[in-house]
C-alpha cells in the first residue's frame, strides 16, 4: 500500500540552528503514529513543515502522492490534512458553531450557507460539544476549547490529522475522554500523527513511534521496543530546551 504521507530528507534551519535535520519517514493510511522527543527536539517544527506553516530548506514532502512542500497552508488543508496547535486558538468573537463553520467554508468542500449549520452542529456533537453551538469559546473549559479546535479541524474532512500535544494539561478523567475521542477518530478511518508527552496515551493509541532528538530521528518502531531503546531513554533524561 502506498504511503499517505512520505517525508524524505526534510531539513529546516533557523539561522545557525538546525531544527529538523534530514528527517525521513512515512505513514500508511489508517495508522496512528506518535512523534516523540524531548523539548527542543523539533517535533512542532515538523508539524509546521507538514502543514505549510513553514517551508523546508531542503527535502521533500509527499501527501496523497502529491509533492506539497511548496504549497501554502490552505492548499494543503484542502488536500486533506488538518492540525491542532499546542496553544488553543479559537476565534474568540465567534460562537462555537461559527468557529466550525469557518473550517467548513475553507475546507475541502468549501461549504457554506444555512444548511451547513447542521453539519457544524454534528461536528460539535461528535467531539462532545453538542450543546455548545451558541457558546463563545471563552466560556468553555480548557478541554472543551480543545474539543472545539478538534471539531474545527475535522470540518476540513482530513485524511491525515496532526495533533500537537492535544492531550496536554488534562486531568485524569479528561485524559481518558480525550484518548477515547482520538481512538474513535482512528476507528472512523482518519490517519493520525500525534506529538505527545503523555505516555499513557502513547501506549494506548499509537501503533508505531518516531522519536526525535536535536532535529534527528533516533528511533522508529513499535512502542514497547522504542520506549526501551537506550538512546531514547538517554534523550528523555537529557537537558530540556524549548519545544
Uncertain spans, ≥5 residues at pLDDT below 50?
239-243
Largest sheet: 6 strands, mixed
Radius of gyration: 18 Å
CATH class bucket of the largest domain: Alpha Beta
Strand content: 15-25%
Q: Could you please describe the fold and organization of this structure?
A:
The structure is a single chain. The two termini are 33 Å apart. Helix 4 crosses helix 5. The chain folds into two domains: 1-80 and 158-243, 3-Layer(aba) Sandwich (Rossmann fold); 93-157, no CATH class. The chain is 35% helix and 24% strand. The chain has helices at 43-51, 73-79, 96-106, 116-126, 142-154, 172-187, 199-205, 223-226, 230-236; strands at residues 5-14, 17-27, 32-36, 58-63, 66-67, 81-83, 160-164, 191-195, 208-213, 216-221. By secondary structure, it is of the alpha/beta class. It is globular.
Key phrases:
single chain, 243 residues, alpha/beta, Rossmann fold, 2 domains, six-stranded mixed β-sheet, four-stranded antiparallel β-sheet, 9 helices, 10 strands, globular, disordered C terminus
Could you provide a short overview of the structure?
By secondary structure, the protein is an alpha/beta fold. Helix content is 35%, strand content 24%.
